[in-house]
TrEMBL record:
Annotated gene: RRP7_2
Family that this chain belongs to: Belongs to the RRP7 family.
Species of the source: Entomortierella chlamydospora
Organism superkingdom: Eukaryota
GO CC terms: CURI complex; UTP-C complex
GO biological process annotation, one example: ribosomal small subunit assembly
Name of the protein: Ribosomal RNA-processing protein 7
UniProt domain Ribosomal RNA-processing protein 7 C-terminal: residue ranges: 2-121
InterPro entries the record matches: RRP7, RRP7_C
TM helices/strands, residue ranges: none
């Protein structure tokens, strides 16, 4: 039922060789298309590669600046004002707060005007 280890190893090696060859050919075809001239004489400008990435062949790691690390904010766990009625309620609440603060400020200004006296000396 189970194949011989050496026969299985040769099948796996052949498959991996074919896969690596096809990957290499695809990479070479992409390099050939890179900045190639078309029939009209125009050059198609394409992106060259992985700028800012470090790789060991298996894992890609994107480089990041130290000052950018400080500015990274944690992602919010829950969405705020997802539904339309929530957005309307939030807007209404904020306008009510502004109106209350405005009324309080008007009262304070009137009190300051009343307390102000003309002092010539």
């Amino acid at each position: 039922m189970r194949p011989n280890h050496s026969a299985l190893q040769t099948k796996v090696d052949d498959y991996m060789d074919k896969f690596e060859r096809s990957e290499y050919e695809a990479q070479q075809a992409a390099l050939a298309r890179l900045n190639a001239m078309d029939d009209d004489g125009f050059t198609l400008v394409t992106r060259a590669g992985n700028k800012g990435y470090n790789t060991d062949g298996v894992i890609k790691v994107q480089a990041i600046k130290a000052e950018d690390v400080k500015n990274i904010k944690p992602k919010k766990k829950e969405l705020q004002d997802f539904y339309r009625f929530q957005m309307r309620e939030a807007k209404r609440d904020s306008t009510l707060i502004f109106l209350l603060v405005f009324e309080e400020d008007k009262i304070k200004i009137e009190a300051l005007k009343v307390n102000r006296r003309f002092k010539p000396y």
